[in-house]
Amino acid sequence: MIETDPDVPAGIDAVRAVGTLSREDYDAVVVPMLDAAAREGRRLRFLCVVDEDFRGLTPDGAWADVKLGLAAMRNLEGCAVVSDLHWVRDMTQLAGFFLPGHVRVFGAGERDEALRWLESLPGRLATVRVDPAAGVVVVDVGQPLRREDIESIASAVDSWLADHTELPGLVLHAPSFPGWENVGALVQHLRFVGGHQGRIGRVALAVDGQPVGIAARIAGTLLHPEVRKFAFAQVDEASAWAGAGTHARTA
Questions:
Q1: Are 173 and 140 a contacting pair, CB within 8 Å?
Q2: What are residue 164's DSSP bridge partners?
Q3: What is the pLDDT of residues 31-45, one digit of tens each?
Q4: Prior bond of 122 cis (ω within 30°)
Q5: Strand 167-174 and strand 200-207: pairing?
Q6: Which SS3 state, helix, strand or coil, does residue 158 take?
Q7: DSSP character at residue 250
Q8: Helical segments of 54-138, H only
């Protein structure tokens, strides 16, 4: 069954899943929550506590879960799942990559932390700073890139390009290659790449470690063929190189 959890801050919907879930559970508890959020015009911030005696879903409950999930996707701001069940944690992390909102898993004793995380969304964004003298945008990233991070980067780049034909350089500064929070962030990144292709001179990756697989291929061809890797501590050298490739031309 699904039990509502009223002991949460305003703007957050919360449930506790116990035993086996059926379609009737979704109809009685989850559907009214989705309808209320839609009526109030707010994005969903959802807390789900999964007890250790949770056994999964009946067949009709699984179908209801899929249908409601698809309906709620476009309106999902964030979902926090609190559980110590390994299979629930693994499935949530996998599903979270394909959901448009922010998804995070917490341990059974971390309910308060999960609520604080939901309240803080979207949380701290990547730091985007512009060096107008060098014509370089530097992006400091400490976590997988999110949709909001890409929007912040695009805003800084577009602000520069409003008065110039190109941006000499873009620097990604991160302890390790950050990757993307979910498919939505990756798609947003690819749109940014396509929309700015040819208008950024150099890309410097001040990142420790060696990106692998698809991450390496995308990082190596982000916006321009001229890409160079630096160590994380060499951000100043990376910025100098990125800004030296071309001269900023006024539009």
A1: yes
A2: 250
A3: 888 888 888 888 889
A4: yes
A5: parallel
A6: helix
A7: B
A8: 59-73, 86-96, 111-120
